[in-house]
């Protein structure tokens, strides 16, 4: 059938050549990463370098955009390459409890869940977990005041360091919206004194995302840049306020968040993400 299309065979041969080149380049990258790993190990500084990984992703996304390629194509391939390089160096994706990285932060990578595949049986069971949009109507029976109090308490816990250290001063009198799209939840928070409170007023800037992506961000399993690049988190309204808030959250001293909460967020995010993958694999959409 394809032989009837003039020129197609030649173009496909050229595509094959490019694909071979891609694989060759990936093999070369893998060798170089191994050398980097050895150099770091010799210097006694083995471990993942989150900031470096972030720069790698950002460079690829910018170059791809400049070349008219979807940035996700480049970052997706690099994400796989970085994950493989880390596994090659024997680096794990687990919670960083102040170990090798030096920064004490947990490693953020989209590979966390993918490099730790969910066993087939668990995958089947996860499909029975209702997707968030089906849980949304149930949440509506939770009184608004209760929801607000829970959110205020969670923010006070997670953000106690920046709140007491004055890092959130820029939020004084400003109103930031948080929208969990698939749960149909929406809050507007404002800094009053040293407390973030939920208010009943329009937001100046809003961050919107699914519960799974927001949990992945809060649990540091994915970083804000990746989520914004991939438009899984969307910022609307006053961009400056939104970006400042995002940057502060990005620099959040994770090691100061109570360990129990860190683990709960991490587990919750992994669970939500695994359930989403199971739904997608099962043909579910928008979960
Ligand atoms: C290769 C290195 O090790 C890891 C792998 C990276 C990569 O594949 O680009 C980047 C940072 C490190 O987490 C390195 O430190 O450069």
From TrEMBL:
Signal sequence segment: none
SMART domains attached to this UniProt entry: CM_2
Chorismate mutase domain sequence ranges: 2-93
GO molecular function: chorismate mutase activity
One of the GO biological process terms: salicylic acid biosynthetic process
InterPro entries assigned to the protein according to its UniProt record, in alphabetical order: Chorismate_II_sf, Chorismate_mutase-related, CM_dom_sf, CM_II_prokaryot, SCP2_sterol-bd_dom, SCP2_sterol-bd_dom_sf, UbiT
PROSITE patterns recorded: CHORISMATE_MUT_2
Keyword entries, A-Z: Isomerase, Ubiquinone biosynthesis
Pathway(s) where this gene product acts: Cofactor biosynthesis; ubiquinone biosynthesis
General function of this protein: Required for O(2)-independent ubiquinone (coenzyme Q) biosynthesis. Likely functions as an accessory factor.
Classification via PANTHER family: CHORISMATE MUTASE
Family: Belongs to the UbiT family.
Protein known as: Ubiquinone biosynthesis accessory factor UbiT
Source organism: Aerolutibacter ruishenii
Gene: ubiT
């Amino acid at each position: 059938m394809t032989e009837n299309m003039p020129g197609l065979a030649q173009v496909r041969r050229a595509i094959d050549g490019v694909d071979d080149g891609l694989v060759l380049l990936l093999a070369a990258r893998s060798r170089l990463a191994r050398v980097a790993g050895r150099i770091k190990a010799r210097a006694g500084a083995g471990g993942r370098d989150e900031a470096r990984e972030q720069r790698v992703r950002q460079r690829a996304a910018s170059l791809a955009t400049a070349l008219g390629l979807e940035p996700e194509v480049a970052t997706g391939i690099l994400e796989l390459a970085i994950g493989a390089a880390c596994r090659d160096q024997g680096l794990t994706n687990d919670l960083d409890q102040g170990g090798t990285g030096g920064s004490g932060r947990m490693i953020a990578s989209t590979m966390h869940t993918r490099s730790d595949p969910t066993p087939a049986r668990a995958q089947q069971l996860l499909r029975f977990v209702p997707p968030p949009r089906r849980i949304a109507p149930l949440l509506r029976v939770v009184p608004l005041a209760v929801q607000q109090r829970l959110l205020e308490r969670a923010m006070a816990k997670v953000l106690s360091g920046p709140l007491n250290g004055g890092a959130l001063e820029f939020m004084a009198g400003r109103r930031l919206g948080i929208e969990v799209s698939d749960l149909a939840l929406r809050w507007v928070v404002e800094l009053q004194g040293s407390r973030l409170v939920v208010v009943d007023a329009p937001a100046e800037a809003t961050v919107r995302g699914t519960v799974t992506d927001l949990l992945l961000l809060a649990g540091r399993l994915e970083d804000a840049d990746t989520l914004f690049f991939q438009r899984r988190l969307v910022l609307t309204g006053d961009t400056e306020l939104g970006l400042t808030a995002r940057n502060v959250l990005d620099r959040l001293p994770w090691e100061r968040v109570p360990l129990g909460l860190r683990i709960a967020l991490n587990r919750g995010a992994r669970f939500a993400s695994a359930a989403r993958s199971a739904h997608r694999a099962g043909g579910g959409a928008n979960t």
